[in-house]
Amino acid sequence: MLLLLVSVSMLSFFLVTYSPIDPIDAYLGEARISEEQRDRISEEWGLNKSPVERYVIWGEHILNGDMGESVTYHQPVKKVIAERFEASLWLMGTAWVLTGVIGFLLGILSGSRKNSMVDKFIKTFCLILASTPVFWIGLLVVMVFAVELGWFPLGLAAPVGKLSSEVTLMEKLHHLVLPALTLSITGIANITLHTRQKLIDILSTDYVLFAKARGESSHQIIMRHGLRNICLPAVTLQFYYFSELFGGSVLAEQVFSYPGLGNAVVHAGLHGDAPLLLSVALCSSLFIFFGNLMANITYGVIDPQIREGGKSSV
Q1: Buried b (16+ CB within 10 A) or exposed e, 138-150
Q2: How far apart are CA 180 and CA 247, in angstroms?
Q3: For the chain, which end, N or C, has fewer CB atoms within 10 Å of the first or last residue's CB respectively?
Q4: Within 10 Å of residue 159's Cβ, how many Cβ atoms?
Q5: Ramachandran quadrant class, 309 (left: phi over 0; alpha: psi -120 to 50; beta: rest)
């Protein structure tokens, strides 16, 4: 994890440093200042130092718990991330649960009815979804469910004109449905297709044939012999999806104007807000590392034989 954080911080820092966006111009906007004033701002922000010096200084501040000040929001980066991460956590958490549950169930349904009309429909639908960009799906969902049918709001995380303390849980969930559904669709397609193929492979094995000869039903075969085997690839993909949640949330939050961390990253990038961009990069790395760690732990829970030093059962 430490090696990962150092590598990500170095790569992100130098990418931001050599970005074509000038942070001072982005900060000033249309305002015009003298060269002397520009030099003062540059000196105050430390832009007059070499990239290596700036990285060392920034690293020391990070180690001391100081993420700096956001140029875009004029607030400490810690505060911006804390406020935005709560909204993103609701979005990504809901999308992640929908991805695992719906994808796994559709994969079982499709794989257990190989070459049937249900199987062909699910497989075709998932192949189409897996090859469709998230932002396009988001726009289509908005047009159908928000504009044409009017079932859900166009965007945001709460009704306009209400204080955060006045917003009810049902109102939050109502605004959350469309962005969470959009963010989960690609992951659902991948888990469905992989689970389907794994189940088909298992149902074609000799021990399943023997189970059928003993009179076990399809339901019993799936429950006794299939679930543990098809769970492992599904868990792998489910926790791997952690890495795609951040990227997908940026697009989904932009389409739905959802005030999460992804939306903040876009604004930070357009304004050359290095402190916020770098801090989000580190937080996303921790998030993805945590997902991979949880996947490794879950493997041992599902199949004890995978655990190091575990005894194989006879």
Answers
A1: beebbeebbeeee
A2: 14
A3: C
A4: 14
A5: left
Q: Measured between alpha carbons, how far is 225 from 74 in angstroms, rounded to an integer?
A: 57
CA 262, 191, 226, 102 dihedral sign is positive
Measured CA to CA, the distance from residue 277 to residue 5 in angstroms comes to: 14
Cα dihedral 88, 93, 94, 96 sign: positive
Q: Is the pTM of this model over 0.85?
A: no
Please give the structure tokens belonging to residue 281: 């990069």
Neighbouring residues of 252: CB distance < 8 A, sequence distance ≥ 6 = 91, 134, 135, 138, 179, 182, 183, 258, 262
Q: Which residue has the tokens 């030099």?
A: 39
Q: How would DSSP label each residue in 99-156?
A: HHHHHHHHHHHHHTTTTSHHHHHHHHHHHHHHTS-HHHHHHHHIIIIIIIS--S-SSS
Tokens at residue 115, please? 């070459």
Judged by DSSP in three states, 312 sits in coil
Residue, of 307 and 194, whose pLDDT is higher: 194
Helix (H) or strand (E) holding 234: helix 227-256
| C-alpha closest to that of 6 among 288, 285, 291, 294 | 285
Strand partners, 70: 75
Q: Is the pLDDT of residue 270 over 80?
A: no
Residues near 207 by beta carbon (within 8 Å), at least 6 away in sequence = 225
Q: What angle do CA 57, 60, 63 make, to 5 degrees?
A: 150
Each residue's pLDDT tens digit, 144-156:
888 888 888 777 6
DSSP string, 31-93: ----HHHHHHHHHHHTTTS-HHHHHHHHHHHHHTT---EETTTTEEHHHHHHHHHHHHHHHHH
Residue 33: both structure tokens together? 């200042």
For residue 93, pLDDT over 60 is answered with yes
The tokens for 59 are: 């690293």
Tell me, what amino acid is at 293? Answer: L
